[in-house]
Amino acid sequence: MTPARLLLRVMAALLPVFSIWWLCGSQWLQPAVGLAENMLSVWLPRIFHELIQNGDSVQALTHWERVGDYLVPAAQVGTCIAFDANLRLLSYSFPFYVALQIALWEWCGWIKTALALLALYLVLVVSLTFVVAKEIMLGLEAVFLETSMHWYTYPDFIIMGYQVAVLLLPALVPILLWVAVNQNVLRRHFGLN
Amino acid sequence: MLRFCGVFFSVLLTLFGIEMINSVQTHFILPFTALIASTSAAIVMFFDTGVVAFSNRLYDTLSGFNVSIEPGCNGIEASIILLAAMLAFRATWKQKVIGILAGTVTIQVLNLIRVISLFYLGQWQIELFHFAHLYLWPVLIMLDVLIVLVVWLKFVGDSSNRNTAEVK
After folding, report:
1. pLDDT digits over A89-130, tens only?
2. Beta bridge partner(s), residue B58
3. What number of other Cβ atoms are within 10 A of residue B76's Cβ?
4. B6 part of contact set with chain A, CB < 8 Å
5. Could you give the 3-state DSSP secondary structure of residue B50?
6. What is the ipTM of this complex?
7. Is A191 left (phi over 0), alpha (psi -120 to 50) or beta?
8. Contacting residues of B for A18, CB less than 8 Å apart
């Protein structure tokens, strides 16, 4: 297969695969939201309260509320500040991976495919955790900085994680998994070593 | 494979970390991003005189619509990925330098097409703009990286085959 043919095949596969991804909604990400919620509860116990999926986005509820210019514990006022995050910003890695796999047109086996999709799903969980953490950090800056006592709650760490999660992982991980899963086929076609 | 992964991820994370440093952002990333905006405006002005660039923004003077080109939308991350991958593969330094330069140019040309297409897509239909901006173009840019890499690997493979044949 030539690189041009690979490009044409991926482009042809992208349209139907992205359409299906768009029409399917994001309910299949509910387990990922649950896992991210557990991770955030451990990561930011004094700030994060709950993660609720709302269609294609998630809403992160916090333990804090804004009254005037001050942040007060949510328990005192009965309401809380919430932040939204877009799930599709991370989940487009799935149609991309499927389009690459279709373009190669050589079945690599159920186990390898399942493992690749599972890996994508786990990457999405970690990415979602960072995306939500970054939204909370920027929204509750003062409280967040006061409670940042460990390296894993430092703003630089969270910002770096967010940038990797949004700018690198959704587009890069599908290609890495595709190469890993189809090593022999790619070696035959393109001489990848 | 293990060597490739080691070099690839080391270079990738190091360069990505360097890119995040404030002084690098101020002295390189932001000026480069502004250069993309002005280059896009210069290209668009060939067929649309109502477009101007100011800092990192591209304006349509008639409709008032504008797009802001932010760090992360400048193709640098894609170039870093390509650079890391080419450094990780076994090839001569000359082949790596040629590949990195040619690949970076390809990525930046595609990124200019991306910026201009988004600028007009946003004026036409904002929902499509968001779809293309957030989901479609990142995939196309990364696909560009993949195809450039595959073409480069063919070039490297052909060169080494030629050299082997000449030695024989």
Report:
1. 999 999 999 999 999 877 777 888 899 999 999 999 999 999
2. B53, B67
3. 23
4. no
5. coil
6. 0.88
7. left
8. 135-136
Substitution target from A102, A175, A178 for chain B, most B beta carbons within 10 A: A175
Please count the CA atoms within 13 angstroms of the CA of B151 that sit on its side-chain side: 17
- Please answer yes or no on whether B139 and A3 come within 8 Å at the CB atom: no
Considering only the beta carbons, identify the residue of A3, A11, A92 that sits closest to B150: A3
Given pLDDT bands bounded at 50, 70 and 90, which one contains residue A29? very high
Q: Are strands A57-62 and A82-86 parallel, antiparallel or unpaired?
A: antiparallel
Q: How much is the pTM?
A: 0.90
Q: Per residue in A49-103, pLDDT tens?
A: 999 999 999 999 998 888 888 888 888 888 899 999 999 999 999 999 999 999 9
Pair of tokens at residue A99: 């389009």
Q: What is the rounded distance in angstroms from the CA atom of residue A23 to the CA atom of residue A81?
A: 31
Q: How far apart are CA B104 and CA B50, in angstroms?
A: 30
B136 in contact with A, Cβ within 8 Å: yes
Among candidate residues A157, A166, A179, the one with its CA nearest the CA of residue A123: A166
Q: Are A20 and A91 in contact (CB under 8 A)?
A: no
CB proximity under 8 Å: A 135-154 to B: none
- For residues A178 and A6, the answer to whether their CB atoms sit within 8 Å is no
- Per-residue confidence (pLDDT) for residue A27, from 0 to 100: 92
Judging contacts by C-beta atoms under 8 Å, the chain B residues touching residue A164 are: 16
Question: Is the CB of A3 less than 8 angstroms away from the CB of B151?
Answer: yes
Q: Which residues of A touch B83 (CB under 8 A)?
A: none
Specify the amino acid at residue A125: V
Which pLDDT score is estimated for A183? Answer: 86
